[in-house]
Amino acid sequence: MKSSVARPPSVWISQVLFLLSLIGFGVAFLGALLSCFSGGPSPRCPASVTPTDVLISLLVIVLAGLTFWGLQTGRRYGQWLGAILLIAAVVVGISDSPLPRALNVVLLSLLSGGGGLTDPLQACGHPFGGMTYLCGYSSYAALAWRVIADLLPSLLLGVLAVRLLCSDAARRFFHQRSNG
Structure pTM? Predict the structure, then answer.
């Protein structure tokens, strides 16, 4: 009698995340289709919606659905596709945060011998300047917490991706399911 390997928590959490993204993207996609392409131009439809945007949305929906199904059935493609999409979400999350732009300003000011950096404890100057991420804090600890809060969701997704690929429990689960 062969004992079955239980689904590890990293697979459960990944499945929930992909199911939620599948539902969210699906509802948003259907809403956009209904509001933009039913009965002529709509004032609620952004003018910049192109067929490429529609195809990218469909691709995200299909990939999220395939990943969810692959994780549900315990297939290796679900494991790898889930890890790849989670890592892509990490890259997007970090690149969309203001932290890389602020670090770029810091590095350029240090490397090029440019002007000194503003003190994070001073009030911010122009609200749309490149340094607004690094000013207006009550302490250096408050600045550190802001950086950590910006990076934490992305780092947690990265840990989930690594656990999905490298944990012994996930490896046993996908090996058992793919071998019958």
Answer: 0.77
